[in-house]
Fold this protein.
Amino acid sequence: MKINYADFFISSTVWSKCPEPDKPEYAMIGRSNVGKSSLINMLTGRKKLAKISGTPGKTITINHFQINGDWYLVDLPGYGYAKRSKTERSKWEKMIKGYILNRVNLMSLFVLVDVRHEPQKNDTEFIEWLGISNIPFVIVFTKADKLTRNQLEGNLASYKNSLLEKWEELPPIIVTSSETALGKDELLTYVENTNKLFEQIPKQ
Ligand code: GTP
Ligand code: MG
């Protein structure tokens, strides 16, 4: 798929205020600083579309981007940001879980994981919660440019092994870099194919 049009659409504080669910959508989620906003910019080819910052915790709302007029990409606030207070974290959890469980046009969640690190508790717990809640997701590894080929393959193999301790089957996995655009075609092809399934969801 080629992206001909990409623009910011709206920021919402709660799922019920998100745009009409009349188009398929895909949301980026993952730890603060994992590269969610950078991936949106890489996919759309617009360097400043989603705000990137060296400071974690920059994204604090549900941000919709309209793509090609027929689907949405959504930037969500990161989890696991240590400097957030307990109240802020529980607010985050309510907002994110409400969005994920209630958004009828959410085709798949892109769970971003920094490929440099060992499996982290908050990622693993979140992925387990998705499984229990029956939410389709893709694991999108980020920052592949920061590793050598050998390191990358070693890390991917050990991550997959740790997933297979809990899961019978691996979810779809896409390896990306926002620096080199690795994984761009693969992700957009996934969206293109999954968009076709949207027609089959009965309109509310
Ligand atoms: P929050 O909104 O705070 O949750 O962060 P985020 O997940 O949106 O991360 P963001 O895209 O803002 O990126 C965080 C930092 O990682 C920035 O300094 C980016 O430039 C850097 N970064 C993101 N993706 C990549 C990548 O693929 N390769 C490299 N080398 N750096 C990356
Ligand atoms: Mg962000």
User: Anything to note?
Assistant: Strands lie at 6-12, 25-30, 62-67, 71-75, 106-114, 137-142, 173-175. Residues 6-197 form a domain with the Rossmann fold fold (CATH 3.40.50.300). Helices lie at 36-44, 86-102, 121-132, 149-166, 184-198.
